[in-house]
Amino acid sequence: CCAGLRNILQGLSFSAKYYTKHNLPQAVCPYSEIKPKKCHILHCSKSTCTHRTAPPGSILPWRFFSSEEGTEVPSKRKQKTSTVTSDLLHKNLLKSEQESWNDISPTYKALTKRIKEKLEELHNMYTLNSESPRMRFGENVYFEENGCIFLAKADDDEGNAEILFSIEDLGFSDAFIQRIRISPDQRYMAISLKSENSEEATCIIMKLGNLPVLEKVIPSVFSFEWAANDVLYYTTQKNLKCQNVFMTTFTYQKHTKLVYTEQDARFFVDLYCTKDRRFLTINSNSKTTSEVWLVDCRHPFEPPALVQARTTGVIYHIEHRRDQLYILTTYGEPAEYKAILADNYIHRIIASSGKENWQLVYALEKKTKLVDFEMFSDACIMFLKKAGHLYLNVISFVSHSVQSIKLPTWACEFELESHPEHTTSTCYFQLSSPVHPPKRFAYSFKENNLIEQAVQEVPIIANCHTTRLLAQSKDETLVPITVFHNKNSKELHRRPLLVHVYGAYGIDLNMSFKEEKLMLIEEGWILAYCHVRGGGEQGLCWHRDGCQHNKLRGLHDLRACIKLLHELGFSQPKHTALAAASAGGALAGALCNTDPELIRAMVLQAPFVNVLNTMMKTHLPLTIEEQEEWGNPLEDEKCMKYIKSYCPYQNIQPQCYPSVFITAYENDERIPLTGILQYVQKLRKAALDHASRTSKKGNWIPNIILDVQANGSHCDSSWEHSLNE
């Protein structure tokens, strides 16, 4: 899962499909035939889990090794017997579900064929015409298409581009390009490659020139940034944990050393370069607290300097402009993001960067979500979300003014175009919604206005109506709902309704464009997005009000939203389906237990439905980090009882359940497959028990279907996977 503001720290995401381990330096042939591949954009996600063995955030001169003393080692015989029994049970359950899926899936063959053809038609119409993200360095523009890296001139209107190299030519097959970073002098390019079936990526460093050469391969890399022309910092990832920062050089004295390690199991480390490339930041973040160390890019071999020691509950991120640090932080009341200036940082280094010297520049209004932040030479831009609407706020450092622009009402998501130059006079971004394909906009700093780019070949959908509602929850809190339906639809109470929910980690519901959503609108469906507490749609407080001991609020919110939709004539229970993914499965599964009469069907993707059992297993990679979201049932009996009160698996009972379709992944590192297998087995038994006990006329047995994918990773967002789903 991603925390809000992760896209500030994330790099340029690209796509294609190639991967294999290969670490022999080789020259790259100018080009060979490239097979066209479908492209998709992937976003990195963070997670971490280790055992605390030393003070957090240790700065180390060299490699760091540690071990805990006095640790009791369990009996190997007991361990082996328990593991064998568990593995056998898992295999039997998996085999049973796979046989069940093979029996039932042919039933949907004709329907699947029709849907697939329609989706491919929409994909070709709306998506394939879009350009790959560009990365500009002075007069040069770099971009990726179909696994090839291209170089073009910024002022070349003819579209001429030189192919630098192909990932396939390097021997990396079945992977996609996830991130690209170019050294300041453009002599080196670092690229991360990731396969569908792994959370970990491999970083390759290419030496550019007339004949690019594969300089180095680094396995299991999460993030990386160039601190200087030939100095690369990178973090390594293992078992979803990212805690070590290394520095490697490419001069005649090539060497690699560990410069930072994080020991707190709740924290995850990544890297980011300030927009002006003055500092490289080492960011150590938990879900509620953060700490940042600075590497001076003018002196990349000096030890990192601490900006502000971690303070429980305080999150902050760093940018730099003209010898001053600009800090986005939750410090102070209310605990929402604020823009802070740490004055004269360069002249007094660490002495003036502490919280006591922070000066407020700008504070968000209540119930406002900071979606993204971008620093430029004379201004910074904030993308905000308030009451379901998107806003662009421009803070001018010249006029010391703030300009707020409300973006088009149909827009639900935005994407900032990759790495705009620090001194640019225009900021480009795209707006979209689940049923509106991305449309390009620009903000001109010179004109101080928003510019809609030339009309695209495919116009914005005209026959879709967007409605924003507020449902009153159990404690009278107003919960936003976004509804889409076809303007030409009549008798909406007879139309099928698909409700979406997430409500965890302070993350907004994904409302980017999806071909399948547009298809449903065209076929008369109603789409509803319930922005319940626990998500991030109304700021950090909205998340805090729905996590740990407040999780039930999200369930109450979801119930209120669905009831309001039905009361207002948007469909009815027998035509309503509920969709959720990952942590959203906890709320959807809970509603399925408490209010099964509200929905007819439930569709889950890699759902977190066995919450209590998972949070009791500290050997799993995410359990310790997740305690800030769900609580710690091992040490807190009240927490254990509270989780048990809503956990989907724990509360299954014989009753009339809706039909359920679940997609899971055999090698999912985040959501254990065993928990999903147990949930499906228990749910199916409860439904059958209820049917056998009742002889009511019209009684029905729901379809409870599990599709276990052998390939793919947790909630894979690729076009190919989305099409199969």
UniProtKB/TrEMBL annotation:
Residues 512-690 form the Peptidase S9 prolyl oligopeptidase catalytic domain. GO terms for molecular function: serine-type endopeptidase activity. Its EC number is 3.4.21.-. The keyword Cytoplasm applies. Serine peptidase whose precise substrate specificity remains unclear. Does not cleave peptides after a arginine or lysine residue. Regulates trans-Golgi network morphology and sorting by regulating the membrane binding of the AP-1 complex. May play a role in the regulation of synaptic vesicle exocytosis. It is an enzyme of class 3 (hydrolase). One of its GO terms (biological process) is proteolysis. This is Prolyl endopeptidase. Keywords: Cytoplasm, Hydrolase, Protease, Serine protease. Belongs to the peptidase S9A family. Pfam families: Peptidase_S9, Peptidase_S9_N. PANTHER family: PROLYL ENDOPEPTIDASE-LIKE, PROTEASE FAMILY S9A OLIGOPEPTIDASE. Coiled coil: none annotated. Residues 94-449 form the Peptidase S9A N-terminal domain. GO terms for cellular component: cytoskeleton; cytosol; Golgi apparatus. The keyword Cytoplasm applies. It comes from Notiomystis cincta. It is found in: Cytoplasm, Cytosol. Its main location: cytoplasm.
